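Researcher: We're teaching a course module on how sequence relates to structure. For the next exercise, students receive a sequence and then see the predicted structure as tokens, so they can try to spot secondary structure elements on their own. Here is the exercise chain.
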Amino acid sequence: MRIIKSYLIIGFLALVTSSYAQKVFTEKDIRIIPKPTQTLIKTGVFEFNKDTKFVTGNDFQKDAANALASKFAIAAGWKPETTTKAPASNFVQFKTDPNLKNEAYILDVNPNSIVISAKGNTGFLYGLESIRQLLPEGIESQYAVTSAKWQIPSLTINDEPRFKWRGLMLDLSRHFFDKNYILATIDRLAMHKMNVLHLHLVDDQGWRIEIKKYPKLTEVGAWRVDQENLSWNARLAVSADQKGTYGGFFTQDELREIVKYAATKGIEVIPEIEMPAHVSSAIASYPELACFDQKIGVPSGGVWPLTDIYCAGKETTFEFLQNVIDEVITIFPSKYIHIGGDEATKTNWAKCPHCQKRIKDEHLKSVDELQSYFVKRMEKYINSKGKKVIGWDEILEGGLAPDATVMSWRGTKGGIEAADQGHDVIMTPETPCYFNFYQGPQNEEPLAFDAYNPLNEVYKFDPVVPTMTPQEAGHVLGGQANLWAEHISGPKDSEYMIFPRLAALSETLWSPKEKRNWNDFTTRLFSMFKRYDYQGLNYAKSAYLVTASSTADLANKQVKVELKNEFPNPDIRYVLGDKNIDHHAVKYTSPIEFKETTVLKASLFQDEKPVGKTFTDTIIFHKAVAHKVKYLTPFNQSYKGDANTMVNTIRGSKNFHDGQWQAWLVNDMELVIDFEKQESIEQVIVGTLESQGAGVNFPIEVKVLVSNDGIKYKQVGKITRPYAVNAVPELKDFKINFQKQNARFVKVIAGNLKKSPKGESSWLFVDEILVN
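Model: And here is the predicted structure for the students to work with:
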């Protein structure tokens, strides 16, 4: 009897142990990004262990398998071996299927084995990437993970990309990234099943590729005068005599190493060699490339308009560019060469005798047609080398080169026009594909370009415009993200701007349109966040942030604050006053009303805990709220807020387009607040913004005057401050304290800087005048 009981106990324990060992997977456990085309979940699991084998048929498959096996070596403490012959069970096998499309794969997982079927290398890579995302997030760990069970569900995934071009552009001119960061970026692109890395190697602020025939391109053009302490557009012009020390470049051997490594990850590296504009770095190196042989320095920051461009009339210009292209194509085996072609200001061409002779000799009608001649001539040469040309959508101006592909960045109009003409198109409109734009509230984010592309807008992107005909849509190769680097100071900044927006873009470019669902994507994104955490990736958590919008009811002297978040049906909770955000916080359901000065704190909650940064705002009711304001110097109509902007309690943000600012260009601000009866006052606060890159500067002085009749005023307070360099946007309250006064009228004068050190007209921005 005891023996029978023992067997029953052992059997029960085995059953319990088995139930713990084999998790039952459901659809919500499949958190692959980008979402596969088809997924069928079956019964059972496959468990990786030290005896698991990878069965490979060639060196590429072996290397790809070893990349995943090496992750097990770190996270699990053992490394699966590779072999050429399949054992009876417990193996992952690569199977070539010539009937599949180039990047397609089928992943068939059973309890005894995994088979990845693909036509070629990239399909096998993507199958392995899907296995990687089916595994626990700990597979990404850089240390041992003892608690994980390395199981994935039995299933069949039948997957292929919707678009053939799924890219990311890195701007290496405005900020030079070293080889190691480029290689790390390639790994991250592969993880998201992206297949193009577009390297912006040439621009005004730096030439980043070694050209052996023209050594000055890197001796001179790769280095600029270090003004990194100034805002990008506030940096001063430099002369040809000033030596640059900030920059860098890639040798041809380094670039070949990058290209070779990218190929092992299924990624094509596309070089961009700008022409005819964005080439100050080349002209600084070789002045004879310009129309008037002008000697210039490599710009340290923003340049506008772009008048220092290649001369289209000199034969030596084309000889130079052809020699450059000859060396470029020995480095990059890519199908395409990107030649830029954007933002050329052709005023020098209109005056240049060489260019005018070219226009006459070639029977051209305008400088726009001269640009078209330039692009077509270079395209013909590049085509003769077996390559195709890509250009930004400006290459449409004056007529498009016969075989050119258009990269449409100024919206989608250029792409539509090019597709209508029968040209291939890559869609990368500024909104939402420019990852140098802010992705969260500017007050909470690192410095970026003054525009907004949040995660959810990236996810909405579709390269095919609804108005396109099926024939036009057939010319859309896909899309890409662009990270321009004016405000990037290193790899961590770059990572922050790219991720997780690249995850959203990867799904828009890979997954079938009907499979895309924002709610579903956000649930899978949290798993990706954990993977980023294990990898030490500095991804943005901006999507967690709570944002607020306020409306003022000045008749009743109250303010309503609405809270929101990017995620669907967010669990936002808040507290008032000095309380902490914890499990006692109130769930937000409708706009919150305020009638007195109050501190508001709010956060997104997950699993009953606050996540992300806590939103904090102080709504201040002061004595000037809702009183009449008379403007003695009119504010600029471009930033006019409303009649009550200065006294509505609602503060502006670093986004000076938020509607809460009034602004003066060159002029001083001078206004009068009428209390309609005497009030006892002793302090005036002037809320201001400085964003030197945008030409916005703090006031150089603030004066407060009071009166009881509105005619005779006496000055009660004044502060002055010298101009100071400020590389980042900043909000600042200027406080003027004075002896307590009884007054009906308060006049406030804020002195405008007038002219910046760069010689440009200065803006003065004010959001609120607080009187206490």
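Model: If you want an answer key for the exercise: The two ends are 89 Å apart (CA to CA). The chain is about 25% helix and 30% strand.
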